């Protein structure tokens, strides 16, 4: 039996955390900004779907975003103990709540943390069952899920259709790799998949087998309930 791999992506995660903290912000345009050097506001790091409709994007500065969306609600990441550090603890806490729910579904589901707002789920042992009711507690309103038999194509399926949705592109995977994704990369994965393994081995040696299989959307690396071993914080200027 093929594996069944799912990907949970918490949409505009930082913005949703702010909306949950201040319920009056639900269904309103929200942007989250992290401080920059000397405490001055930096660029936008998260944008709610309501704000995206006005053309607000990550990386924009507040004045430009306000020009596009005058009603934009701007939330700031709390400043840490030191002026050059951000305090992202509340986002970590919100992430932990979601992962607690995912891990509580069923012991047969392997949950592998990919980032603060993403998780891979190995659903193979639970493919004939469906979890319907999580409970009355509102964690986050929007998330996107992708389903595939392989880790890389799960992420591709998830990325094609954002917005509190679920998506499965397995049936037309090879055609999509050869056509649609050409808009995102200079050469398609389909073209790479057509290159003989021997040619890839001449260039990449030990990694050739992995590259060749990945180009075909194949990655049978087993998933693991790996614990968090480290935390990294960065601030870009």
UniProtKB/TrEMBL annotation:
The keyword Transcription regulation does not apply. Keywords: DNA damage, DNA repair, Magnesium, Metal-binding, Nucleotidyltransferase, Nucleus, Transferase. Its main location: nucleus. This is DNA polymerase eta (inferred by orthology to a human protein). Residues 5-126 form the UmuC domain. GO terms for molecular function: DNA-directed DNA polymerase activity; metal ion binding. InterPro entries: DNA/RNA_pol_sf (IPR043502), DNA_polymerase_eta (IPR052230), Rev_trsase/Diguanyl_cyclase (IPR043128), UmuC (IPR001126). Transmembrane segments: none annotated. Coiled coil: none annotated. It is found in: Nucleus. It comes from the Eukaryota. It holds the Pfam family IMS. GO terms for cellular component: nucleus; replication fork; site of double-strand break. It comes from Nippostrongylus brasiliensis. GO terms for biological process: DNA repair; error-prone translesion synthesis; response to radiation.
């Amino acid at each position: 039996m093929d594996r069944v791999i799912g990907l949970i992506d918490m949409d505009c995660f930082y913005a949703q955390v702010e909306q949950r903290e201040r319920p009056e912000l639900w269904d309103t345009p929200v942007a989250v900004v992290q401080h920059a050097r000397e405490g001055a506001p930096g660029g936008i790091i998260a944008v709610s779907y309501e704000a995206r409709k006005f053309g607000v994007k990550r990386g924009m500065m507040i004045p430009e975003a306000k020009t596009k969306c005058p009603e934009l609600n701007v939330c700031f990441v709390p400043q840490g103990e030191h002026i050059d550090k951000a305090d992202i603890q509340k986002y970590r806490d919100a992430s932990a709540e979601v992962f607690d729910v995912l891990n509580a579904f069923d012991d047969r589901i392997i949950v592998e943390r990919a980032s603060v707002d993403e998780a891979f789920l190995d659903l193979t042992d639970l493919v004939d069952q469906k979890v319907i009711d999580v409970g009355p507690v509102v964690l986050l309103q929007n998330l996107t899920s992708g389903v595939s038999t392989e880790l890389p194509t799960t992420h591709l399926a998830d990325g094609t259709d954002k917005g509190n949705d679920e998506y499965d592109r397995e049936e037309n995977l090879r055609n999509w790799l050869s056509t649609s994704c050409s808009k995102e990369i200079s050469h398609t994965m389909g073209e790479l998949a057509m290159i003989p393994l021997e040619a890839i081995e001449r260039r990449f040696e030990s990694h050739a087998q992995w590259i060749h299989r990945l180009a075909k959307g194949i990655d049978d690396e087993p998933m693991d309930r790996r614990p968090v071993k480290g935390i990294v914080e960065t601030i870009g200027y």
